[in-house]
Design brief:
- The protein is α/β, with parallel strands linked by helices.
- 44% of the residues lie in helices and 17% in strands.
- It has helices spanning 3-9, 14-29, 69-82, 90-94, 97-110, 125-136, 151-159, 172-181, 204-214, 236-240, 268-277, 279-282, 289-303, 305-324, 347-359, 389-402, and strands at residues 46-49, 52-56, 117-122, 141-146, 163-167, 186-192, 217-221, 247-252, 262-267, 331-332, 339-345, 362-363, 366-367, 377-382.
- The chain has a seven-stranded mixed β-sheet with strand order 3-9-8-7-6-4-5, with helices on both faces. Strands 10-11-14-13 form a four-stranded antiparallel β-sheet. The protein has a three-stranded mixed β-sheet with strand order 1-2-12.
Length: 410
């Protein structure tokens, strides 16, 4: 059936479809159209994707817990205890004992870094950020947002109806001036801790000092630091040894924790405000209790000897990559986190580089604008505790070999 006949059946005029097709065509011509790939195996270094085996360096499963047998068994046990779904929002009947136990465990886990902490779980980190900024912001609030923050923070700030001031990446001095000029009764500074496309860290100690001096909240999105940073995996706050009543902490549970969801941890008054005012929390069906039950096992692994060994192994892999990758034109950004970006530059060369790696059985995604600034398309390598040294060596050999032959694409 033709596009025209489908459009006629659905009452849609063909010019509307033509406009969409033109827009999609423009994305393709600019090398910006995204494509999904389908995996047929659990999240792991070696996966079956599109019908063949590849060595993957693209998941955020930093500790290798997504297919950990104890976590998988806990998920199975949770389904037996609580069923497949929650059935309602948290404020109706969807808040299970598993959710309550997980929130208590998270608050306890982060207690050294927050004052009178309480935790609240969300379906995704995106929803958690929307909830935080909308509930705490408003027309009488100023939000100060890092220039390269995640899209969820940008969207949450827009939805909050607050005045939004964007400060340059890592620029504490400019932020100080902006905070000093603000007359808003509520001031919120919001930043990623580990920047997801660069792998570098926000200067959290300096940001917190500013917030304490100017009477502002510091909202830390630790999606890529929770479970990875700190001696006990408590994330960026533990890494920097921070503790303050000005801190509001968001962490995700589908990356290093290996399952799904997110949480906010903060003073109990902040959490109660979210319960009362955060629409993404109030009007959303609660996540399956079995997921929360599985996450109790994830937290035990993260905070125990197993988690410490996994973090140590990831650090060794990072050092191995750093010591053996020899690039001339491409630029590996400095990062001591599992996120190891290599700047290629142009969209076309980044796509060709990713395709060349894929032809060798190695899956590294090409990240292009608008996710990253124009002219900085990159290969985003992510390492996991499930990777071996031999896996990293295979990646290094491939990248060192491919860079020069692809020079004509630049």
């Amino acid at each position: 059936m033709s596009v025209t006949s489908i459009a006629a059946i659905n009452g849609i005029t063909s010019p509307l479809l033509e406009r969409l097709q033109d827009q999609l065509g423009a994305l393709g011509a600019a090398g910006l159209r995204r494509q999904r790939r389908t995996t047929d195996s659990p999240c792991a270094p070696c996966v079956q994707v599109d019908g063949r085996a590849v060595l993957a360096f693209c998941s955020n499963d930093y500790l290798g817990l997504a297919n950990h047998p104890e976590v998988v068994e806990a998920l199975r046990e949770g389904a037996g205890l609580y069923g497949a779904g929650s059935g309602a929002s948290h404020l109706i009947s969807g808040h299970s004992r598993a959710h309550a136990l997980l929130e208590d465990r998270l608050a306890e886990f982060l207690a050294p870094h927050l004052v009178l902490p309480r935790a609240l779980t969300f379906s995704t980190g995106y929803m958690a950020n929307l909830a935080l900024l909308a509930a705490l912001g408003g027309t009488d609030a100023d939000i100060f947002s890092e220039a390269v923050n995640h899209a969820s923070i940008i969207d949450g700030a827009r939805l909050s109806r607050s005045a939004v001031r964007v400060y340059p990446h890592g620029d504490v001095a400019t932020l100080d001036l902006l905070l000093a000029a603000s007359q808003a009764p509520t001031k919120l500074v919001v930043t990623d801790s580990v920047f997801s496309m660069d792998g570098d860290l926000a200067p959290l100690p300096e940001l917190l000092a500013l917030c304490e001096r100017h009477g502002a909240w510091l909202l830390v999105d630790d999606a890529h630091g929770f479970g990875v940073l700190g001696a006990n995996g408590r994330g960026a706050l533990e890494h920097f040894r921070l503790c303050s009543p000005h801190l509001i902490y968001m962490g995700t549970l589908g990356k290093a924790a290996g399952v799904s969801g997110a949480f906010v941890a903060a003073h109990e008054s902040v959490i109660e405000t979210l319960i009362q005012r955060a629409r993404p929390y109030i009007y959303t069906t609660a996540t399956a209790p079995a997921l929360a039950h599985a996450l109790l096992t994830s937290l035990t692994l993260i905070g125990g000897a197993d988690g410490a060994q996994r973090r140590l192994h990831v650090n060794r892999l990072i050092a191995r990559l750093d010591g053996t990758l020899r690039l001339q034109r491409w630029q590996r950004l400095p990062s001591f986190t599992p996120i190891q970006p290599v700047i290629i530059g142009g969209n076309d060369e980044a796509m060709v580089a990713a395709a060349a790696l894929d032809a060798r059985g190695i899956w590294v995604p090409a990240i292009r604008p608008p996710t990253v600034p124009r002219g900085t398309a990159r290969l985003r390598i992510t390492l996991s505790a499930a990777h071996s040294e031999a896996d990293v060596d295979a990646l290094v050999v491939a990248m060192n070999t491919l860079e020069e032959p692809l020079a004509h694409v630049a």
